[in-house]
Amino acid sequence: MKLFKNRGDIYVPKTDYKSSKEARILRILLIFIIIFTAVFLVILSRHYSSAAEFFGEGEVTLTEENVTEEKLPDIEGKTNFLIFETDDDETVIHYIYLIQADKSSKAYKFCALSPDTLVDGEKMIDIYSEGGGASLQTKLTEYLGVQIDYYAAFNNSSFVDFCSKLGTFVCPVYEEIKFSGGEGSDKYTIHAAEGEQTLDAQNFSNLLRYYSEEKKNYSLQNEVLMSAYTSLFNEENYDDSESLFRLFIKSSSTNITVRNFENDKDALYVFCKINSEITSYSTEVKYKNNELTQSSIRDIKGYFN
């Protein structure tokens, strides 16, 4: 049947004889391939125990994916830090705490202190105002009988700016909080629902201040700190640790140097690498007339020595 009159005319056969012939040829080829394969496998199984033996010993190798766990640096020892935040004018301490990085047991240890703590009868803010963070570090080392290796003092604005670079973290809140406090330019507000809450830098600072100044609940303050450190010291922040350390130096008054940072880089790496497996401990202190009880001092010594 002719479809077109010009070049390239297409003819469609009136019968399917040609297509039927091609189908028969394909079926014959398929039957031949199946018979050949079956015969080949029978001969192979009688003479060779494996494909490797058929192709020649040593010519076929089976490879297994070699999966090895990353070996972390060996670290040991304990380092104690004193961290605190003041108002922007540095006239009051909002909160203050001790933290130990126990490199031998891969653990954090926390102890939140009252900003009103008297050290040998002297207020901590007065010690800081007169001699700076180094003076407060020295006085607390002598008073507590614990070697405090480093200190870092932030004002509120600098603390929030620095922690904003670290990201957010999830923290348990055991009751609904709606509170406004402080005076003048040092006012703050904290709103939090009961349950797991995601805290940014500002709410982190405000919640620590609320538990420290208003509730005087150092146990809950310790819990916030544990949640923060075990979340924010992570692989992502470690990858950016050099720029974060430069910001830390810029944001705080501290005796931690670049050399200290480089010397403890392995410890920082381990804590950030296995942050979800880090153990955290805390001790809650008790006071009598703004002085630590003797039992509290013994507890601090037990934890931080």
Strands, helices and their partners?
Blueprint: H1 17-47, H2 51-55, E1 78-86, E2 93-102, E3 107-113, E4 118-119, E5 122-123, H3 124-144, E6 150-155, H4 156-166, E7 169-173, E8 177-181, E9 188-192, E10 195-199, H5 201-215, H6 218-232, H7 235-239, H8 241-251, E11 253-254, H9 258-263, H10 265-273, E12 279-282, E13 287-288, E14 291-292, H11 294-304
Parallel strand pairs: 1-6, 3-12
Antiparallel strand pairs: 1-2, 2-3, 4-5, 6-11, 7-10, 8-9, 13-14
Most strands sheet: 6 strands, mixed
Shape: elongated
Number-wise, the strands total 14
Q: How much is the average pLDDT?
A: 88
What portion of the residues fall into strands of 2 or more residues? 15-25%
- Derived from helix and strand composition plus strand pairing, the structural class reads alpha+beta
Which parts are unreliable, with pLDDT below 50 for 5 consecutive residues or more?
A: 1-14
Multimer state:
single chain
What is the gyration radius calculated from CA atoms? Answer: 36 Å
Strand order of the largest sheet: 11-6-1-2-3-12
Describe the 3D structure.
A six-stranded mixed sheet has the order 11-6-1-2-3-12, with helices on both faces. A two-stranded antiparallel sheet has the order 4-5. A two-stranded antiparallel sheet has the order 7-10. By secondary structure, it is an alpha+beta fold. Residues 1-14 have low confidence and may be disordered. The chain has helices at residues 17-47, 51-55, 124-144, 156-166, 201-215, 218-232, 235-239, 241-251, 258-263, 265-273, 294-304; strands spanning 78-86, 93-102, 107-113, 118-119, 122-123, 150-155, 169-173, 177-181, 188-192, 195-199, 253-254, 279-282, 287-288, 291-292.
